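Go through this fold for my students:
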Amino acid sequence: MEEIQSQSDNYRSSSSSASSPTSRMPSSNFFYLRKPGSLRQAISFEDSPEWEDTDVGARVEEGGDSINAATTPVSPSLSKLNSGSLPSPPLPEGAAVARKNAGASVVWKDLTVTIKGKRKYSDKVVKSSNGYALPGTVTVIMGPAKSGKSTLLRAIAGRLHPLAKMYGEVFVNGVKMHMPYGSYGFVDRETALIGSLTVREYLYYSALLQLPGFFCQKKSVVGEAIDAMSLGDYANKLIGGHCYMKGLPSGERRRVSIARELVMRPRILFIDEPLYHLDSVSALLMMVTLKKLASTGCTLIFTIYQSSTEVFGLFDRICLLSNGNTLFFGETLACLQHFSNAGFPCPIMQSPSDHFLRAINTDFDRIIAMCKNWQDDNGELSSVNMDTAVAIRTLEATYKSSADAATVETMILRLSEKEGPVLKSKGRASNATRIAVLTWRSLLIMSREWKYYWLRLILYMLLTLCIGTVFSGLGHSLSSVVTRVAAIFVFVSFTSLLSIAGVPALMKEIELYACEESNQHSGALVFLFGQLLSSIPFLFLISISSSLVFYFLLGLRDEFSLLMYFVLNFFMCLLINEGLMLAVASLWQNIFWSVLTLITIHVIMMLAAGYFRIRNELPGPVWTYPLSYIAFHTYSIQGLLENEYLGTNFAVGQVRTISGFQALHSAYDISPSSNSKWENILVLFLMAVGYRILVFVLLHFRVRKNVSLRRLCQCHRNSTT
């Protein structure tokens, strides 16, 4: 305690310009906050402006234990701020939402989260956290990096990875339960958006994936979400832009990701870092928008690392974390008073959030240690030179013995004892509807994104044109057989290798699937069918255009049925390639390793296809069994050669003739049966189905596990020292 007292005294002396928050700040240079323990009055440090907006808030009846909706002021008019402070933008048109939302109270009690290490659950990321969130309010989980903010948010929302274990209780409207589908929304720090769609289109397709009912009803829901997030000016603009137009700014993109969850009209909304990568103006606009959203009755809980003074003034409650420990939970002004009572008053010219993080962020100790011999113009490195470990212990001990902690315990007891309405699932769209929506959306995306199939179509046409011109003018003599076999091998192998150019586009689809699946907007089977059905028209267009160019330049047999078989065979190869790329991309979820793996697989399949050495002469243990049998090149080339040469004869001299089978026997291993080429088509079809089944398994297990594990590792890195 002597060490703590000496450090506190040292901090007070170095912050001589600071005083108590009730006397040191003029209202013209600060923000407006509520009194601790009161939700009904807005106050500043000296005087309070009039409130322009009154909306649905929440209060606890004195002497009772029930929560009732009340008409309470929720935010001051930002235009009341004097010119001495940073000017704030006016509320955008459409920011006020007319529809009221019946929110829900959320209580977490003695919440502890551990992550499984090499031996056991040992790493405590969150330690005995207590808090609550009320309808119509904004509750913020704040702290430096490695403090456990995201982990606590996910624990409250019930979205922890299986490797993380949670202890404690979470109550929703006084009931210990998991929140059902549609009753809450969760927005990750980084959300995959579709750049080729407009904001309205993106939200509309999201509504179709999430909501049951008629299409006209979903249009009205989308309009409400756009108005709620103040996106009216961007509703018809492409999210990612195009070559002649820039995409949406980062602030608007963040609001689009939040609006996607609002189409379900959730009663509780969890947001991980809504101000992530936003400048001060965009952050303030985002916070004003969220404040207006909370004024409709929705319960908002989100994490934040740092905020400006104006943004800080819009918070209702703060849960301050450091190394998993709760240093404070309560209202914003009470947090300032708490730091002052602990001996760390906020200096006049410093933002409260900056001051909080400075006091509890251990990284500052390293900075001071590095620069301890350097002095600024005033002879000091910083006005804050206390040991952060001591500050953390002081703040934690002060909070545990304070009236704020007792008030929180009383509030948690009241909210958890009285049961309110049980949250119910709002229903969801059927799988058939989701497949149809994903198919149509993917068709629209693929038609607009030139990197998906249009670029591949151009590359395929150029490649087939090159191959066709190199091998043109072969004729139909016996001497042309070996060269024509080489041409068909090159066509099948090189076009299959060229399909790897579609990996980045498929990776985007997998990322989008993982994002939508985490919020239960999609599923592995739905995504698989939607992607397959939407890709078939483009793959067929590529197959028929490339086949026509190659077929006639090479001078193959001029029969329509043979041409159609050639197109069908090549179409099956493209389907197999698409499934193989999806499987590898789902396995690695990394463009570099996916491309490297696919190139290796294709090269090995080309070696085992029976061209460089006839299939029955390949070494048995590896190259014949199993490589030559799992290489789709083998069946494709064999079917195309059988399609071309079975039923033909070649003259040997003036008297003797040999069949096409005999002519090919020494160049490639084919079957003399007339049905063999259809058997090869069947094998190719089964391979395409088999790869899709493999993709389903990988999507269902690997992608979900990897995404959750990445988020768990991210939370672990951000929650441990």
In short: The domain at 106-336+413-417 is CATH 3.40.50.300 (Rossmann fold).
